[in-house]
Amino acid sequence: MTENNGYEVVVVGAGAAGLSAALVLGRSRRRTLVVDAGEPRNAPSAHMQGYLSRDGMSPAEFLAVGREEIARYGVELVRDRVVDVAREGDFAAVLASGRTVRARHLVIATGLTDELPPVPGLAERFGRDVVHCPYCHGWEVRDLPTGVLATSPLSVHQALMVTQWSKDVRLFLHEVGEAELTDQDLRRLATAGVTVVPGEVAGLVTAGDRLTGVRLADGTVHEREVLYAAPRAVPHNDLLIRLGAELRETPFGSYPVIDERGLTTVPGLWAAGNASGFAEQVINAASRGYRAGAAINGELLMADLDDAS
Fold first, then answer.
1. Per-residue pLDDT of the chain in tens (309 residues, 90 and over written 9)
2. Which residue intervals define the domain FAD/NAD(P)-binding in the entry (predicted)?
């Protein structure tokens, strides 16, 4: 290893998971580098909810505080992107800047990208009055006329969940045919008071930079102030694939097989946050990062003791 490019741990991604792992490693006196491409998943949201003591904090502020915290413990952070990675004894990560860094352990905390349905106007309002998670946004949009955009049979479950926050819910079938709804679906929707609206959604109606309605392809407009739309998750798993990590297929993409600490099937290769699973909220991602960081410190300690004995 060279003095400038050799680390005990390189963390790829500086969201909640990556920063949390780096914080634990820095406090454990491990020479750690964090490589951050600056593309957090929750950037469209003005606030994050459900994180005890940080409820309502903006994602940008949360990450800024995290970067300040890891710097106190000597963790290096560079704004760059890992474009290639290989295992050559240690891990070798090639950055977009041309620099190659090496590490004994590698943490992949690259998250995922939310791909929204191609409905005109949807992306522009995402994170405001077009939302995807009632646990993230439900309280803020409670009791408003609400729509749910159905893009798969799983959207029925989403519509049923949303009724905990609003009793005026319409399920726009959009990409789901009426025949795809089971008898149980129809019973539950009726019991929950959800109105089922057949037909394709053609766009959104706004006034004064606020959502006011959902327009169908036949021109019909349904007055709505909130629309839930489930994105398609695209996990950033290319580095894991290049290193030969085993993946598992889920309805929400391919994620690495990991143990309870976050270790993949490749020794020394770890995954945390949304790189390890679709449903990791910010607080869960931070927990995953913490657990991985503590486990890595233990692995390094025991390996060094064994080498020295």
1. 344 689 999 999 999 999 999 999 999 999 999 999 998 877 777 889 999 999 999 999 999 999 999 999 999 999 999 999 999 889 999 999 999 999 999 999 999 999 999 999 999 999 999 999 999 999 999 999 999 999 988 999 999 999 999 999 999 999 999 989 999 999 999 999 999 999 999 999 999 999 999 999 999 999 999 999 999 999 999 999 999 999 999 988 999 999 999 999 999 999 999 999 998 999 999 999 999 999 999 999 999 999 998
2. 7-289
How many CB atoms are closer than 10 A to CB 84? 13
Integer Cα distance of 190 and 263 in angstroms: 44
Contact 230, 149 (CB under 8 A): yes
Calculate the CA dihedral of residues 148, 153, 154, 155 and round it to 10 degrees.
0
What is the CB neighbour count within 10 angstroms for residue 73? 16
Strands 112-115 and 210-216: unpaired
- The residue behind tokens 């929204």 is 116
What does the H/E/C string look like for 288-304? HHHHHHHHHHHHHHHHH
Burial class for 1, CB neighbours closer than 10 Å (0-12, 13-18, 19+): middle
- CA distance between the termini of the chain: 22
CA distance 35 to 9: 11
How far apart CA 19 and CA 38 sit, in angstroms, is 12
Question: Which residues are CB-neighbours of 238 under 8 A, at least 6 positions away?
Answer: none
For the chain, how many residues are written?
309
Nearest 5°: phi and psi at 123?
-60, -35
